[in-house]
Amino acid sequence: MPVADEVHRLQRGKDAESRFFQGFAEEGHYGGRTEPTDTRQGIYAVTPGGKFLASINTRNGKAMAAMLESALGKWKELEPTERLGKAFEPDKNTRFERFFPTDGLVLRCVSRDLEVQKELGETDWRREAWNQDFAWFRKGEVSSMIPEAKVGATLAMPKPLAWRLAQCHLLDNVRGQTPAYKPAHIKTALLTFQVTKVEGKTLHMAITGRTKAERAGKWKGGLECELLGRAVYDGERFTRFELVALGTRWGETQYNARSGQAQSRLGMALVLDDKAPRVAPANHWIYGWR
Prior knowledge:
Low-confidence stretches: none
Mean pLDDT: 94
Structural class: alpha+beta
Number of domains: 2
Radius of gyration: 22 Å
Strand content: 25-35%
Distance between the termini: 32 Å
Number of strands: 10
Number of helices: 6
Largest sheet: 8 strands, antiparallel
């Protein structure tokens, strides 16, 4: 059974799920590692009871297949009772996914480069790199974005929501993980909704905006974006939401694979996804939801 999860919580948490993961991760490829970081990211093959079989951290298909073959060999050597192991009993639900806004707004946020580095080889994975995240808004937050039902009426997205978008989602994560900006890094975060058409309770809106974030220190860099989009609100919820962010990035962070690259252009599409999986935003702790 394939399972995907965010390793940050699992490798540091104290709940039953985290302890279960930590139990077999310490036998894997990064077991006991403290330098250069304490990450336990990777692919693990384990029994239902958590007995370690094999692991690897790779994008190489052949290496992945070899790991699975090794795991299968160890599985075949186990006695039936060893294969099952002790039943796993999770704690009560403490995951952020429990806040999934079924009556709010979920945006799928896809990012990619708009230009390819000339020095990258034809087979370099960074040429085709892209990433995705999900941005969540509760029902009350959605309501706070909606202007008066009159053509020409405008309303700025409330500052806490605009800043959250800039902090958590308008990031240079195209090639890899990158941390959220801190509030002090946000220089500009403005999004404005303007009504272009009214049909009964349904409002058609244009969205414009701009953001800029910049960090100093060891991992100095930043991202400046212009935003343009459109949305339709039926009086209860958004039935359409399409927002494009075109930005200029510079600098790097520890894991976003930008070492040595000068500033470049990237793009992001933030689109309504009413069938989105319950995957929490990558930087969900910034939301402060309780």
